[in-house]
């Protein structure tokens, strides 16, 4: 149990509900000339099995039928990316000068490294350093991985969960991290504003000088410290839950601040991966954590635990970037193939609704009446609609996403009723008897 809470500290960061879309054009896309990707381990696909899994750049390239050059490097900070952009090869410059879109995924390592320094100070001040180390012989700057040389994170998390006094100390170091990143003091505005955003802005300027017409899409950094209720109940309780919540909520504030400042950079568009991974409405966010545990492997044990995007996460990022680009069509390629082959999570959770809406909008292969999105209409669709109707009549929270509601309202009267369920069941019966008309065509037939 001690090791679980260490994720909250050591894995600080690595990284509009969509309405149902209009009918997309099929066939060729509208001529995306190429996509270049800069970033860190999230963009490079760290942790994926290259023999059977796909990073989001590969999914995007397949969907848009265009060449994608992925220049992302695991471990890169905004300093590293800026250096990469300043030292592009002639071949890279040539590709970028003709690329229509440049995607940037950066910032997680900056936040990790900054936080590692503060955590090390916290450990030193409270006598938690590994044997042989003192406050006088530790470096001023270090990464999360280097942090492990000087301090056992399990010892830090155990200390932080021993009672109110320890939690107050943890709260103070978290506030120091937040202030240093987001607020600053005196004339300084915080590390995000003073260092990270200028680095990204300068890199964007260099890219624009090579290709003034390129669309620059920057990704917000997702919050990985979101766990399922089952995991919280099984692995975190009492003081550990309090300490874990303190870390999670503080870093939600940090990541929201970074997202806002990213979006304000002149000449960029924001692909809001933070929102997609959280996948909660504002009302849900008041009581629920979000779904990063679904899009990462943060809940696995030992060496399998990872806060990088898993295959579900890369699919969600691909869908969000494609939605931002806006060149959409009915997909029968890798995007749909990956979605249909997603592995089970081991828990009773389906693809989160907000991210699912984005995927369905981009995939475009939507059928009226197909509320479980398995591309066929069966009696289970009618059952789901009837359950939703029952919940609506009971004044309790319903379960359908906006896209599912569109699929369920088959009589197009703006509400979900038992009549919708009956129509879906009637159509399923028709199909079972050998019928081959579409749903819409079937209900145009006179009685």
Description:
- The chain has 447 residues and is α/β, with parallel strands linked by helices.
- Helix content is 52%, strand content 6%.
- It contains 22 helices and 7 strands.
- A 5-stranded parallel β-sheet has the order 2-1-3-4-5, sandwiched between helices.
- The longest helix has 25 residues, at 239-263.
- The model is unreliable at 11-29 (pLDDT under 50).
Overall geometry comes to globular
At the fourth level of CATH, the homologous superfamily of the largest domain is: SGNH hydrolase
Measured on Cα atoms, how large is the radius of gyration?
Answer: 24 Å
Decide which structural class fits the backbone.
Answer: alpha/beta
Helix content: 40-55%
Poorly predicted spans: 11-29
Secondary structure tally: strands: 7
Q: What value does the average pLDDT take?
A: 84
Strand order of the largest sheet: 2-1-3-4-5
Please report the number of helical segments: 22
Fraction in beta strands: 5-15%
CATH topology (level 3) name of the largest domain: Rossmann fold
């Amino acid at each position: 149990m001690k090791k679980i809470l260490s994720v909250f500290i050591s894995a600080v960061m690595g990284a509009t509900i969509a309405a149902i879309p209009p009918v997309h054009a099929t066939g060729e896309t509208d001529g995306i000339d190429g996509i270049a990707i800069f970033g860190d381990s999230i963009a490079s696909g760290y942790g994926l099995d290259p023999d059977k899994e796909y990073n989001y750049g590969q999914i995007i390239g397949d969907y848009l039928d265009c060449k994608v050059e992925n220049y992302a490097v695991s471990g890169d900070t905004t300093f590293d990316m800026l250096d990469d952009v300043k030292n592009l090869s002639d071949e890279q410059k040539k590709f970028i000068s003709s690329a229509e879109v440049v995607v940037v995924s950066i910032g997680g390592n900056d936040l990790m490294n900054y936080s590692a320094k503060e955590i090390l100070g916290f450990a030193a001040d409270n006598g938690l350093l590994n044997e042989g180390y003192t406050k006088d012989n530790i470096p001023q700057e270090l990464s999360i991985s280097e942090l492990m040389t000087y301090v056992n994170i399990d010892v830090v998390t155990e200390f932080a969960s021993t009672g109110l006094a320890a939690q107050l100390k943890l709260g103070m170091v978290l506030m120091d991290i937040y202030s240093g990143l987001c607020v600053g003091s005196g004339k300084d505005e915080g590390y995000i504003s003073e260092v990270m955003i200028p680095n990204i802005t300068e890199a964007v300027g260099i890219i624009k000088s090579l290709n003034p017409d390129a669309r620059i899409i920057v990704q917000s950094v997702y919050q990985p410290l979101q766990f399922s209720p089952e995991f919280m109940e099984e692995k975190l309780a009492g003081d550990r839950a309090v300490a874990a919540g303190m870390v999670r909520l503080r870093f939600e504030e940090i990541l929201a601040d970074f997202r806002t400042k990213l979006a304000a950079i002149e000449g960029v568009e924001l692909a809001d991966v933070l929102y997609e991974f959280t996948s909660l409405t504002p009302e849900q966010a008041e009581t629920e954590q979000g779904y990063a545990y679904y899009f990462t492997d943060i809940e696995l044990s030992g060496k399998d635990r990872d806060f990088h995007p898993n295959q579900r996460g890369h699919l969600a990022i691909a869908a969000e970037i494609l939605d931002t680009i806006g060149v959409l069509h009915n997909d029968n390629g890798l995007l749909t193939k990956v979605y249909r082959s997603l592995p089970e999570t081991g828990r009773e959770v389906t693809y989160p609704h907000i991210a699912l809406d984005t995927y369905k909008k981009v995939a475009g292969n939507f059928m009226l009446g197909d509320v479980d999105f398995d591309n066929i209409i069966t009696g289970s669709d009618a059952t789901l609609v009837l359950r939703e109707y029952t919940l609506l009549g009971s004044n309790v929270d319903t379960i359908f996403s906006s896209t599912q509601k569109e699929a369920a309202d088959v009589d197009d009267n703006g509400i979900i009723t038992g009549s919708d369920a009956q129509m879906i069941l009637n159509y399923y019966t028709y199909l079972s008897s050998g019928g081959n008309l579409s749903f819409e065509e079937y209900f145009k037939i006179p009685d």
